[in-house]
Specification:
eight-stranded mixed sheet; alpha+beta; 5 helices; 32% strand; 199 residues
């Protein structure tokens, strides 16, 4: 059974986002251990020993049609360094969320995330005809919120007491989006960020 959107791979100068498979598990176990990011209480990054189960969970959601999960490949090393997804897929209204994203510590603050988001947004707006792409994160995850805002996404609002975290705390979810009419400016902005000289 096919689902919208169909599987696809996007390739840039620094990164490849390809459909997630169990073959990515070994790389992602190593990635999850890098920096012990799973210890950040306001994230949902799997522990290394839970990566296999998380891959299977995401693949199950793919079968159900609610998620399209990707492995993020660092072109320099050829290794998977994180995961991201198209999720909360609304095929009728052509809306998606880019979420459940994490990267190993050693590639954070490199061009990988910016280029990966650019490629996925470009596919969403230019190939799939999306009217809106959403991003959500924990209200207290200031690093993630700053990264989303640097993309050019705008805050739609905060869903208060939105979900219960694994530690029992209740998450307020900050919801952002980029809409189709904003895409051209966002694309120019992200392209400039990738091309500008780095300090």
């Amino acid at each position: 059974m096919s689902h919208w959107p169909e599987d696809f791979t996007v390739t840039g100068d620094h990164v490849i986002a390809e459909p997630l498979t169990i073959a990515h598990e070994a790389d992602l176990v190593e990635a999850a251990a890098d920096g012990e990011l799973y210890r950040l209480w306001y994230t949902m990054i799997p522990k290394p020993e839970d990566v296999g189960a998380e891959i299977k969970r995401r693949l199950g959601l793919r079968e159900a049609g609610s998620m399209l999960p990707f492995a993020i490949i660092d072109k320099a090393s050829g290794c998977a360094v994180g995961m991201t997804t198209f999720m909360n897929i609304d095929a009728i209204n052509k809306r998606i969320e880019i979420g459940s994203t994490w990267y190993r510590k050693s590639v954070q603050r490199t061009p990988l995330n910016t280029e990966c988001k650019l490629l996925l947004l470009q596919h969403a707006f230019e190939e799939l005809g999306c009217i809106s792409v959403e991003f959500r994160t924990h209200f207290m995850n200031t690093q993630s919120r700053s990264a989303i805002e640097r993309l050019g996404a705008k805050l739609d609002g905060v869903l208060r007491s939105h979900m219960v975290m694994s530690d029992g705390s209740v998450r307020d979810t900050a919801c952002y989006s980029i809409i189709a009419s904003e895409w051209r400016a966002v694309k120019s902005h992200l392209t400039w960020k990738l091309e500008k000289p780095r300090d």
